[in-house]
Design goal:
By secondary structure, this protein is mostly helical. The chain contains 7 helices and no strands. The protein is rod-shaped and about 100 Å long.
């Protein structure tokens, strides 16, 4: 306020009032800019967090710890499919942890998409399976889990995202 008084050198009550009003407006404007900046930052954090929730662990597969976690989840999926067959409600929980949430705008084709094809094949009626030469549900289950493991390990090793000295040690029996 002192700087404004010295700069404008008000004469009289009205000019003094205008300088005070200018000081208040400048102070409020500065607070508005700080609040706006904080709100933008908060919204950006939300967008980044929301995006991470949709992406899943696969986005960080280059991290050896994340790769191990993904392989453990695949092992859990394998055991679950062996025990109960394909169960979309249970299996999708694991797939979403790995690949993230699937929305309508999903463009990439990955193993999550392949899972849905294998699921549809395993649920095909016997007549259709024979006519179209589809594999049996048990063969589809084995193909599904084997493909998951091979592609996962290959993508991690080939892209050099995570060093692998050999196949992971898993009890996929």
């Amino acid at each position: 306020m002192t700087g404004l008084r010295e700069s404008h050198q008000p004469e009289g009550t009205f000019e003094e009032f205008l300088v005070e009003k200018l000081a208040v407006l400048a102070w409020r404007h500065r607070r508005l800019l700080l609040a706006e900046s904080a709100e933008i930052g908060k919204n950006m954090d939300f967008v980044v967090s929301d995006q991470r929730d949709r992406e899943g662990l696969i986005e960080e597969i280059h991290n050896p710890d994340v790769l191990k976690c993904c392989l453990k989840l695949l092992e859990q999926l394998w055991k679950q499919i062996q025990q109960d067959g394909f169960n979309l409600q249970l299996d999708e929980r694991i797939l979403e942890q790995i690949y993230g949430h699937r929305g309508e705008n999903h463009l990439r084709k990955d193993l999550y998409e392949s899972y849905h094809l294998w699921l549809a094949t395993s649920e095909a009626p016997e007549e259709k399976r024979l006519r179209k030469h589809f594999a049996s549900p048990s063969n589809v289950e084995r193909t599904c889990c084997g493909t998951f493991l091979k592609r996962f390990v290959a993508s991690a090793a080939i892209s050099k995202r995570a060093p692998l000295s050999g196949p992971p040690e898993l009890n996929w029996k």
